[in-house]
Amino acid sequence: MKKLIILSGAGISAESGIKTFRDGDGLWENHNITDVASPEGWRKDRGLVLEFYNQRRRQLHEVEPNEAHHLVAELEKHFDVQIITQNIDDLHERAGSTNILHIHGELFKSCSCNNKNLVYEEKGDIKIGDKAEDGAQLRPFIVWFGEDVPLYQKAQEKVKEADILVVIGTSLQVYPAAGLIHEIKDDCLLVVINPNETGFGYGQRAVVMKESATRGMKLLFDKLVNLA
User: Fold this and answer.
1) pLDDT of amino acid 204
2) Which helix (H) or strand (E) holds 201?
3) I need a labelling partner for 190 at 20 to 30 A (CA). Which of 54, 106, 158, 170 fits?
4) Do strands 27-28 and 31-32 pair parallel, antiparallel, or not at all (unpaired)?
5) Would you list which residues are annotated within the binding site for substrate?
6) What CA–CA distance (Å, rounded) separates 227 from 118?
7) pLDDT value at position 203?
8) Beta-bridge mates of residue 137
9) Within its chain, how far is the Cα of 183 from the centroid?
10) What is the DSSP string of 162-187?
11) What are the binding residues?
12) What CATH number does domain 1-18+64-104+149-228 carry, 3.40.50.300, 2.60.40.420, 3.40.50.1220, 3.40.50.2000?
């Protein structure tokens, strides 16, 4: 089976009601992004950071995968599919996809703030005083701005094998994730689904669809299946 890589971002989850931040104002739910998604913010006010992600976690319980998620999952019947997502939600999993690399972490997991290898399932709130087995405070299992992206090398290796790379709902402005597009083979088909002008130079080889994630996947699905 041909290897199909899906690189997904906030745009696909936004259609399920997951709120996103925009680089334009630097705010996320009225918070400065550095206050709630950086090591500096964690050191400054752990309570604020924990409550911010507790709210995100509660919201995630209330939303469902949308048609774009389900269509991506359906592609596993026709391709060897690997999803590389910048999203921290579990909507790809709930839609039925099985091979998912969360390069920015997972909202339904927590970890020790001293050892990110101590990871736990976390469907409820994390409070001050909740400890990992090493005695350290639990924190969201999220890659914050300014932190290393441990799964990036694995993502690079996957992208290099792709016969088709479909980029959905990401502006490709956040690095290092944006650099993945440069790893594809010369004969890899590149398709970008994004309703907004990203300012990213895809070059002439990319098929750019200025559509929402759901509409874009509806238009693309049969065409992809015909290439399988």
Assistant:
1) 60
2) none
3) 106
4) antiparallel
5) 53, 56
6) 42
7) 56
8) 131
9) 18
10) -SEEEEES--S-STTGGGGGGGS-TT
11) 9-28, 53, 56, 86-89, 169-171, 194-196, 213
12) 3.40.50.1220
Four-residue CA torsion sign, 23, 25, 27, 31: positive
Q: How many CA atoms lie within 13 A of 55 on its CB side?
A: 10
Amino acid identity of residue 88, one-letter, is: I
Query: Would you say how long the chain is, in residues?
Result: 228
Domain ranges of the chain: 1-18+64-104+149-228, 19-62+106-142
The tokens for 143 are 């890659």
In angstroms, the CA 29 to CA 93 distance is 25
Indicate the DSSP class of residue 136.
P
DSSP 99: -
Q: Give the class (CATH, top level) of 19-62+106-142.
A: alpha beta
User: Catalytic site residues?
Assistant: 104
pLDDT tens, position by position, 56-85: 999 999 999 999 999 999 999 999 999 999
| CA neighbours closer than 13 Å in the CB half-sphere of residue 7 | 29
What six digits make up the tokens of 185? Answer: 């083979």
Q: In sequence order, what are the beta bridge partners of 108?
A: none
pLDDT at 12: 95
- pLDDT, tens digit (0-9, with 9 covering 90-100), for 183-210: 999 999 999 999 876 555 555 678 889 9
How many Cβ atoms from other residues are within 10 Å of residue 101's Cβ?
15
